[in-house]
Design brief:
alpha+beta, 3-stranded antiparallel beta sheet, elongated
């Protein structure tokens, strides 16, 4: 079974990325040739031309992974907005808990101080 592969190269970290596409066969490899463009009038394009490349979901993921490996990052990831909001809510909750515990500790220390007792810093025991 042939497997579609992608290779992305960035020569000397230049301003371009070179995309190579090929099928791995059992004994040979098939490499894609450079894409050719056909110039047509805007009004004649009806959207029924064959695509330059058709990708399965697995192949599309492989292309994205290879671009990521080469240093390309999405400008915005829609799905991560919800995750970020959830993380921010979680952080707010954790801050509330931490500051609540700290306030309780400070209040207890003040009460011990008023009663003339010391709070040990090592094990939480008081004398």
């Amino acid at each position: 079974m042939k497997k579609l592969n992608f290779w992305v190269e960035r020569p000397v970290y230049g301003k371009v990325f070179e995309l190579h596409v090929g099928f791995d066969g059992e004994e040979t490899i098939s490499l894609a040739k450079p894409v050719e463009f056909e110039q047509i009038e805007r009004g004649l394009y009806a959207g029924h031309k064959p695509p330059a490349l058709e990708l399965s979901p697995t192949d599309a993921q492989a292309l994205m992974d290879e671009l990521y490996r080469a240093g390309v990052r999405p400008t915005r990831m829609e799905f991560s907005d919800g995750a970020l909001a959830a993380t921010e809510r979680h952080l707010k909750d954790m801050q509330a808990i931490a500051f609540g515990v700290l306030a309780t500790e400070v209040e207890l220390a003040e009460q011990f101080k008023k009663r003339g007792k010391q709070v040990s810093q090592h094990n939480g025991a008081h004398s």
